[in-house]
Each structure stands twice: as structure tokens, then as C-alpha cells.
Design brief:
Helix 2 packs across helix 12. The two termini are about 60 Å apart. Among the domains are: about 100 residues, 3-Layer(aba) Sandwich (Rossmann fold), CATH 3.40.50; about 60 residues, ATP-grasp fold, A domain (Dna Ligase, domain 1, 2-Layer Sandwich), CATH 3.30.1490; about 120 residues, Rossmann fold (3-Layer(aba) Sandwich), CATH 3.40.50; about 50 residues, no CATH class. The protein contains 18 helices and 15 strands. Strands 10-9-8-11-12 form a five-stranded antiparallel sheet, with helices on both faces. It has about 500 residues and is α/β, with parallel strands linked by helices. The longest helix is centred in the last third of the chain and has 19 residues. A hairpin with a 5-residue loop joins strand 11 and strand 12.
């Protein structure tokens, strides 16, 4: 398959002036390289796309992929992790990991907590402080725990996040509101053991990879898996694979799978769980877009503890996502609607470069006249719509205007070497009786094309010849007379009559 990779490269944002904490969720180049290496070792063609802006730019240039491996976190807003999935959904391009709805809900912790409770998944009791005045309405027993509502990688989580008094609640809320410019989640502090559960698969087929316990050593900030502890995990944290026979581990895995399936997460990710003072597991958060650095990210570390290689982890993710690749190509709207096409603005025909190897389809049509009749004016719209539709289907659409100078047309076709010609030629130099010359030229060049051959085109463009052929075949038509028969008084049927040109169509020449 041709697989694109979408990602936010941390160094690019550091170069723009963002600091270390602001960019902590973005990926290092070695993460992208590791994913690319795993995909190539599986035999896939890999294309590095980059962030959401580059994705949009590439899509506008008609680039497409069989699957996109998405690890892009986004920069702004509560829906930032949903941005790339939403764009890909709009273009019906399959991608790894969860859809926009899941990504947005999972990032916003209070919303996710409410959904978990509706699903019967226990969470810590919580409140939300949207402004400093809300602190007075927090009515939860101390100790409490505070963090931003929509950050990951423990951003905003410090030793000060554990709160033991109303004064600390006020000061910590004030700092977090000011620093992150978003509401603060206040939870009842959970003092028990903490686990992160790795999950592979989607829906009922999802399975737990294992539960990895997070154990802080004596040098770590106490009681909290903080930003500092996570950043210096090699010195401060021990990761230990939980024993499935441990009742707490078994209950933790059961809770994590219920949360994963209930929210509708896909392919791979993590669910964080911590026990309360009674030893009961409680949902902390779900990460449907887990980090994939092979050395420092929790999910690959957990996979390694279970004996799964990084390549196998990536392979399992791709296998799960590949089930969403449609068996038949999807045709996307290109601006058409049920309204009359004369009132629609035609899309511009694609002009940007396309990937090498994309099959070419030449759209051959007559040269337009600036003061042509309505039939000719509509042709420009039709060419644009056909070009856009062909491009959406993965072809390189190339419009080609032709005239009676067929030698020039032949030269252009030899140079372009199309896989197919989409023939839209109805006239040549405004002479409808010559439209058969277009398929005749294509037959001579051996180029396959859409539509009828030159013989059929020649007969059907002349209404009199067509009617006579139909009568010979026993197919009835209205009685008719040619202009010569009219001039000689040989009309053999009574009025009323309708008069029209022999060589014109689209009702040209017909009026009251």
C-alpha cells in the first residue's frame, strides 16, 4: 500500500519559538523514522506528509494515499487532535487510530469523565473551575488533584497539583488558568497504584496488551506522575508489567477495555487507571493517539515488556486500520447538486503536479469561442467537473482543446501518452458534422477513448441520416422532410410542423 504519515515535528515548533513544555506532545524525528522504517520493512510505499497544514496543501494538489498513519497532535483548540482525522474523513481517506469525535472527547477530560460515568466506568469525583470564582463552589473532600482539562503528557501536572487546603486550591487553580488559558479539572486525589493499559484493536476485537504499573522511586516528586517525573523517567520511574493474576491488575484491564470499547477507540492506544483509597480502580484518562517513540513512549515500552517488537506493534496497528479501507473506490462530490448546472460555479480544472506514475486521462474537447452559444459556454463547466471527478478517482486529468488542425492534436497526444481519452468533442471549428474526426484520429493513433466510434458519430450528428437508419431497422420515428423536399413541395404530412437544423443539438435553432 501507499501509506502517508501525518505528524507534528517538535523541532519545527521549537524553531518557531515555542518552549520545551509547549512542544512536549509533538514528535521527534526518530519517531517518524521508526514508523517509516517499520512500514517499509512490511513492503509498503511510505510518504512523509507532515502536519495538518501540509496535509491540506498536499490534498489540494490531488495527492492521495491508500492509508494515512496519523500521529499528528495539532496545536490549537480542544479539537486539535481531531483536525487531521476530520480532514481525512472529508476526503474519504482511511487512517490509523480514532475518529474526530473520539479524539475530541478523549482530550477534554471532564467530558470524557461524564461519558465514562454514563457507561458505568468509575472515575474520581470531580469539578471544573472555568474561572477563579468557581473555586468557591468546589465541594470535594481534600486531598484534591488539579490539572488542565485538555492537555497530555502530564503538562500542567506538578507536585503542586496535589492540594490539601482551600488556599492551595485557589493558588493552583489561579496558576493553571493563567498558564494554559483553559479550565482546570479538580478531582478527588487517588492515592493507590497507577497503571497504563495498552490496548490493540477496535470494538469487540480489542484486546489488552497488558497493564504497566508506574512506580515512582524515592527521588521522584511524590504521589504524582508529574511532567517532571515523566520527562526524567529513566532516573525517577520504574515501569513494571502487571501480573494478570493480581486481582487489581485484572480489574484494571477489565475497566480499561470497557472504557476503550465504550468510547469507540480504534486500532491502538492506552487507558490510564489509578486505584482509590479502598483499592478500587478508577478511570483517569484514555489516550487514543498514544506516543510511538520506540524508546520513550509508554505503548512501545509496554509492548516490549510483553515480548512484542516495534515492527509487530506497527503491523498490528496497520492491520486493524486496513479493515476500514473500502473494497470499492468512493466517488466524492465535486460540486454537483440536484440544482441546474447552469446556476453552479464550475470548479477549476486541476493544474498542480501529481505523483509520478499516476495514469493520465486526456479530456479532449473543442476549442471554445468567446461569444459562442449557450451549448459552448456550458462546455467549460463540464470539462471542469469531469477533470475534478477524474482527479478524485486517482487519475491525472489533462484537458486538451482541439480544432481542425488534427496534426497538432496528434502531436499533443503522442507527447502526453494518455492511458485513456475522455472524448467530449461535439464540433470542430463549430462544424458539428465533423465531430467524428476526433474518434477517427484516436483510432488511427491506437488510443482508447470513451464514447462512440467515428461511424456512429458521423451518422448520429446528421438527424436525417439517423432517422433513415432507424426506419431501415424498423424503429418508428415522426414523419419528416428535408429542406429539399420542402422546396419541391414534397412534404407528405399535415401541419403543425417543427423546424430545426440538421446538424445542431442542445435545442440550438429552436424557438417559438
Amino acid at each position: 500500500m501507499k501509506i502517508g504519515i501525518t505528524y507534528d515535528l517538535r523541532q519545527e515548533y521549537l524553531d518557531l519559538g515555542l518552549d520545551e513544555e509547549e512542544t512536549v506532545e509533538f514528535d521527534r524525528i526518530d519517531t517518524v523514522e521508526a514508523i517509516e522504517g517499520a512500514l517499509r520493512s512490511m513492503g509498503h510505499e511510505v510518504d512523509r506528509i507532515g502536519n495538518v497544514r501540509r496535509l491540506i496543501e498536499r490534498l489540494s494538489r490531488r495527492h492521495r494515499w491508500d492509508l494515512v498513519f496519523n500521529i499528528a497532535e495539532g496545536l490549537y483548540g480542544f479539537g486539535r487532535e481531531a483536525q487531521v482525522p476530520a480532514v481525512l474523513d472529508a476526503y474519504a481517506i482511511p487512517y490509523t487510530f480514532s475518529d474526530p469525535m473520539v479524539c475530541a472527547i478523549a482530550l477534554h477530560k471532564p467530558t470524557c469523565n461524564r461519558l465514562m460515568r454514563d457507561l458505568g466506568v468509575p472515575t474520581a469525583d470531580f469539578a471544573v473551575v472555568s474561572r477563579l470564582e468557581d473555586v468557591d463552589s468546589v465541594n470535594l473532600p481534600f486531598p484534591l488533584f488539579a490539572k488542565p482539562v485538555a492537555e497530555g503528557t502530564s503538562k500542567g501536572v506538578t507536585a503542586c497539583s496535589m492540594i490539601t487546603s482551600r488556599e492551595e486550591l485557589f493558588e493552583t487553580s489561579k496558576k493553571l488558568l493563567l498558564k494554559f488559558n483553559q479550565p482546570v479539572l479538580i478531582e478527588t486525589y487517588l492515592p493507590g497504584r497507577e497503571f497504563t493499559v495498552g490496548i490493540l484493536g477496535t470494538g469487540d476485537e480489542a484486546v489488552a496488551l497488558g497493564a504497566m504499573e508506574v512506580i515512582l522511586n524515592e527521588r521522584a516528586e511524590k504521589g504524582v506522575y508529574s511532567y517532571h517525573n515523566k520527562a526524567h523517567y529513566e532516573d525517577l520511574v520504574e515501569y513494571r508489567l502487571g501480573d494478570p493474576s493480581d486481582p487489581l491488575v485484572a480489574r484494571t484491564i477489565e475497566l480499561a477495555l470497557a472504557a476503550w470499547r465504550g468510547l469507540g477507540c480504534r486500532d491502538a492506544g492506552r487507558v490510564d487507571v489509578r486505584a482509590d483509597s479502598d483499592g478500587n480502580p478508577r478511570f483517569l484518562e484514555v489516550n487514543p493517539l498514544a506516543g510511538l517513540n520506540p524508546d520513550i513512549s509508554d505503548l512501545p515500552i509496554l509492548a516490549k515488556l510483553t515480548g512484542m517488537s516495534y515492527r509487530e506493534l506497527v503491523e498490528r496497528i496497520v492491520a486493524s486500520a486496513s479493515r476500514r479501507i473500502p473494497t470499492k473506490p468512493l466517488v466524492l462530490p465535486v460540486g454537483l447538486s440536484s440544482s441546474n448546472s447552469r446556476n453552479q460555479k464550475a470548479p477549476k480544472a486541476p493544474r498542480a503536479s501529481v505523483p509520478r506514475g499516476t495514469p493520465r486521462v486526456v479530456i479532449m474537447h473543442e476549442k471554445l469561442e468567446p461569444h459562442a452559444a449557450l451549448d459552448f459556454k456550458e462546455l467549460e463547466e463540464q470539462v471542469a467537473f469531469v477533470s475534478s471527478a477524474l482527479s478524485e478517482l486517482g487519475y491525472h486529468a489533462i484537458p486538451l482543446k482541439v480544432t481542425l488542425d488534427l496534426r497538432s492534436a496528434a502531436h499533443a497526444l503522442r507527447r502526453l501518452r494518455p492511458a485513456l481519452v475522455f472524448n467530449m468533442v461535439e464540433t470542430l471549428d463549430r462544424q458539428g458534422g465533423l465531430s467524428h474526426l476526433a474518434p477517427a484520429l484516436l483510432d488511427r493513433l491506437g488510443v482508447p477513448y470513451t464514447g462512440c466510434g467515428p461511424e456512429t458519430m458521423l451518422l448520429t450528428t446528421n438527424k436525417v441520416a439517423t432517422k433513415r437508419m432507424l426506419l431501415l431497422a424498423g424503429i418508428p420515428t415522426p414523419a419528416f422532410a428535408t429542406d429539399e423536399e420542402v422546396a419541391t413541395g414534397c412534404v407528405g404530412f399535415d401541419p403543425p410542423y417543427i423546424i430545426k437544423a440538421v446538424w445542431e443539438d442542445a435545442s440550438i435553432g429552436l424557438d417559438e
